[in-house]
Amino acid sequence: MRAAVPLLLVVLLPGCEAALGPAVAVNAVSLMVTGRAVPDLLVSGVTGRDCSIAYLDAGERYCRPEAVAVVQPFCTRSLGGVDCWNGPVPGLPPPRPVADAAPGATPEPWPARLF
Question: Which of 17, 23, 64, 93 is most buried when burial is the number of CB atoms within 10 A of its CB?
């Protein structure tokens, strides 16, 4: 009986390797093509964030922080300068932006403006 156990282990070990090889190959191809391994794709899909084990290799966090939208300031002309607001613009009707054209005017393409 004791001789059968090592023989059984020798027979079963190649089976584990045969199942592990394709999984490693799929993860390697997925990492090269998408930048994420298959588990990373699952985690990214569930959390909705950009997660990859390659980021850990680069010394970053596993999941990148969510991008924060930057609000562009709204700038208008004033007496002697330009005023910019990040929130609601005072005044009714609101003043035109600094780079705004006259209402209803269509800007010409830039090469036509040079000549």
Answer: 64
* pLDDT grade for 1, boundaries at 50, 70 and 90: very low
In the predicted structure, residue 62 carries a pLDDT above the cut 70:
yes
Give the H/E segment covering residue 46.
Answer: helix 38-47
**Per-residue b/e over 49-85, b at no fewer than 16 CB within 10 Å?**
ebbbeebeeeeeeebeeeeeeeeeebebeeeeeeeee
- Residue 25 DSSP one-character state: H
Extended strands (E) in the chain: 74-78, 81-85
Q: Which two tokens stand for residue 90?
A: 């005072």
Q: Helix 38-47 and helix 4-34: axis angle, to 10°?
A: 60
Q: What is the pTM of this model?
A: 0.44
Report the helix count and the strand count for the chain, using DSSP H and E: 4, 2
